[in-house]
Amino acid sequence: ATNKLLLLPGDGIGVEVLAEVRRLLALIEQKGILSFEIDEDLVGGAAYDAHGVAITDAAMAKAKAADAILFGAVGGPKWDGVAYDARPEAGLLRLRKDLELFANLRPAICYPALADASALKRELVDGLDIVIVRELTGGVYFGSPKEITDLGNGQKRAVDTQVYETYEIERIAKVAFELARVRSGRVTSAEKRNVMKSGLLWNQVVTATHKQGYEDVKLDHMLADALGMQLVRAPKQFDVIVTDNLFGDILSDVASMLTGSLGMLPSASLGAEDAATGKRKALYEPVHGSAPDIAGKGLANPIAMIASLAMALKYSFGKPEVAAVLDRAIAAVLDDGLRTGDIWTDGMTRVGTSEMGDAVLKK
Ligand code: NAI
Ligand code: MG
Q1: What is the rounded (10 degree) CA torsion for 238, 183, 323, 29?
Q2: Could you give the ipTM of this predicted complex?
Q3: Does domain 1-102+278-363 have CATH number 3.40.718.10?
Q4: Which of 160, 210, 285, 291 is paired with 184 by a 20 to 30 Å CA distance?
Q5: pTM of the entire predicted model
């Protein structure tokens, strides 16, 4: 079977960090590990400059046909004046919406060599490796009514509505259980069933889904506020955490600070499984943006992008062992003391984007 991969470098350092991934893809092919059918297109400001839109219909068609998309980053001050619908970020939003990428995976990995850069004490985070699975297309960010009304007496009323239906909870729970199977086999589900009806349904549906063939995975439930506390107290107790859009937004930002730098963090956004092929739509991207302040200078840290490739190998291309090799290569170059500017500390060897890419490639 061919592995269809779409590269969308985007803008700024997106282009620079994706260049390092191209070299790794070439190595993977050269070693006969996987063969890819690689396509490429413009997104964000680059697409706007060429076509007047943040992503073309032709690029969307390629995205729909791809087994996985590797996305760099979009945006920059150059496009500040562009109309709302054509702004660079609209390209990413259209991809998420049209491909229905409902599951957002945000790993928090703390490489031992960087443990001192964490917001927590070294012993709490050294070797940390957890993934937060955030529901991305439902919940309070999208439910209606969503409005501010004027009550006429100098008072206003704001309403947001949290809505979840069974199928939305079931499909995200399945993503979490399947992820846990290629990790260490544990899922913690977080909600507020004590005060929210949507939390109660979340708890019931996750529990019922677990019984439909996922009982090899160990499932725990925790109230979301308590989980937030545990995430800072003893984060290594977790493996996969599954939660709704709002709690996932907050908890994944908290988790990211356990690890060090923005330049280290990968992410994945997964869609529904295709009934015929069993494959799911997937977009992999670093958490960081296009970093206009350092763009074009060869200074960007490519590790978040490289770790995003590792996620693609693990979750889209069925090669967790190759992903593990990549993760070990990243850890090894950090152990050797190589640091881009964002993670540099006294005594370490300062390197640029391509030197960091070279070092990972060699390992
Ligand atoms: P940013 O993530 O681009 O940069 C924040 C800071 O972190 C900057 O000082 C930057 O130099 C540094 N940084 C980020 N990634 C780095 C890396 N790999 N290596 C070394 N240093 C790194 O966020 P910012 O500045 O808020 O946004 C810049 C542009 O990126 C904006 O146009 C924003 O809309 C866009 N953006 C795009 C995202 C995406 O494409 N998914 C996500 C976040 C922001
Ligand atoms: Mg956020």
Answers
A1: -150
A2: 0.97
A3: yes
A4: 285
A5: 0.91
